[in-house]
Specification:
Blueprint (H helix, E strand, L loop, with lengths): L9 H18 L3 E8 L2 E9 L12 E2 L3 H15 L23 H5 L25 H5 L16 H15 L3 H13 L16 E3 L6 E3 L9 H4 L2 E2 L1 H13 L7 H7 L8 H6 L1 E3 L4 E5 L2 E10 L2 E8 L4 E7 L7 H15 L15 H4 L3 E5 L2 E8 L2 E6 L7 E5 L4 E4 L8 E6 L5 E6 L2 E3 L24
Helix pairs in contact: 1-11, 2-5, 2-6
């Protein structure tokens, strides 16, 4: 899996195994598998206890529950990128007759549709999907619980709707589309709708005794896009690399980045706790480290995928019990252990191969009013950020016509244009109507409201 120079240090590997072992022991899990990804490949994998009498490895299947939703979201984003839908489209435009047609595609992806969390009783994750043969059976008679778009409310039924949308637009079953468009291109050969040997069995652990009870492993039918999949630590490791960096065979890096942007208004407790949701991805703050990914929970199994894009470290945790271990905490801890013990070594700085004089002319300090900003040029791209700590900062992508588009934060999507005087010299930068000048309130630029003709002064 790794070449010698890519292996983690012995003390890091021991710390990872120790964290996994503590999680398995304290969580009273029949088995637990973990893996860590760095530099695009697995650099550590470990396991505790046994599956069918042998220690599991990163190629043993476990059920991954709601991590399935991220796979479904990728399929929807592909439809968007192909122009078959827009995220702002109401559902009725593409899948009429559901009774919830006013919700938009993005609201379904971000759990702001207002739909109920679960399908009608009985407990769908312990029942055969044949009990709900149609989407209407999963939605029930009263599918709305909250006003559409008003708040974040996690909804399994919402992802059932998205799976039906994929099937309608592709003209094929959800799992077949998933296999041909995501699993096969990414080489996820051990990810499937039904278990494939070797796989773990799902167990319930008695809360007050060291005793086990087998859990059923049902086919969820129309609810499958919300939580059906089985996978391995190795496959989810590859999926983590894709979510962090994209893969043009499936989704571009830009579309993958879009999935990570918070898209849901959270509860006050979520805001305080640093938790939000993007488009099929959980976005969380763990002790100052931004973690994206997803957790999964179905009877007999718990799973977690945690990714720190900035640290280039991802972790997978899989276990076969209904409750007990906090896999999201374990996953974030595995990321933290590697990121802190062996921080990412940056690529060496190198000068540009050639310098664009037009860009070089823009480099340096600029002022919005009296607020100082620095424009920097690197690798043919530009960034604009405050000279002091805090404030608005963004990188910009060239549009090829002398204008630039912001990629992050307040300036995301806003256009930056260089405004020149009649003699060709630069007058100012226009960024979404904000004027940036070379001097604070530059009297030679058309500053909105004008500049007092007496200029800067003191007070005697």
């Amino acid at each position: 899996m790794t070449t010698p120079h890519e292996e983690l240090l012995p003390q890091t590997r021991r710390a990872l195994l120790h964290r996994l072992a503590v999680g398995q022991a304290e969580g009273r899990a029949p088995s637990m598998v973990g893996a860590v990804v760095r530099g695009g490949r697995i650099v550590w994998a470990g396991a505790r206890s046994s599956v069918d009498g042998r220690t599991p490895d990163e190629n043993v299947q476990y059920r991954i529950g709601s991590i399935t939703k991220t796979f479904t979201a990728v399929l929807v984003m592909r439809l968007r990128d192909e122009g078959l839908l827009d995220l702002g489209d109401p559902l009725d435009k593409h899948l009429p007759g559901t009774g919830v047609g006013e919700v938009t595609i993005s609201q379904l992806l971000a759990h702001t549709s207002g739909l109920v969390a679960e399908s009608p009783a009985p407990w769908w994750e312990r029942s055969p999907g044949s009990l709900r043969p149609a989407l209407s059976d999963a939605l029930g008679e009263q599918p709305f619980l909250h006003p559409v778009g008003r708040r974040f409310h996690y909804s399994n039924t919402g992802y059932s709707v998205l799976g039906s949308l994929v099937e309608k637009l592709r003209g094929a079953p959800w799992e077949q589309v998933l296999r041909s468009e995501v699993l096969e291109p990414l080489g996820l050969d051990r990810t499937s709708g039904l278990p494939q040997a070797p796989h773990a069995s799902g167990w319930a652990v008695h809360p007050w005794a060291d005793a086990l009870l087998p859990e059923p492993a049902e086919d969820y039918g129309v609810m499958a896009p919300a939580g059906q999949l089985w996978s391995t630590a190795a496959d989810l490791a590859r999926f983590a690399v894709f979510l962090a960096f994209g893969d043009d065979r499936v989704l571009s890096a830009e579309s993958a980045r879009e999935m990570r942007v918070p898209a849901s208004p959270g509860e006050v407790a979520d805001v305080v706790g640093g938790s939000s949701y993007g488009l099929g991805l959980q976005v969380q703050d763990h002790d100052g480290r931004l973690i994206i990914g997803h957790s999964g929970s179905v009877p007999g199994f718990l799973a977690n995928l945690s990714i720190s894009v900035e640290d280039d470290v991802a972790a997978v945790v899989l276990t076969n019990c209904t409750s007990g271990p906090y896999t999201s905490v374990i996953g974030a801890d595995l990321v933290r252990i590697v990121a802190e013990a062996e921080p990412r070594i940056p690529e060496p700085w190198r000068p540009l191969s050639e310098v664009d004089p037009a860009l070089l002319e823009l480099a340096g300090p600029w002022y919005w009013g009296t607020n100082g900003f620095a424009l920097r040029v690197a690798d043919g791209a530009i960034s604009l950020g405050p000279l002091t700590n805090g404030g608005r900062h963004s990188h910009f992508r060239s549009n090829g016509d002398g204008t630039w588009t912001g990629l992050e934060s307040y300036f995301a999507g806003e256009r930056l244009q260089v405004v020149r005087r009649s003699d060709g010299s630069v007058s100012h930068l226009d960024l979404g109507s904000f004027m940036f000048t070379r001097q604070p309130y530059d009297e030679t630029a058309p500053v909105p409201g004008g500049v007092d003709p007496e200029g800067w002064r003191g007070i005697g």
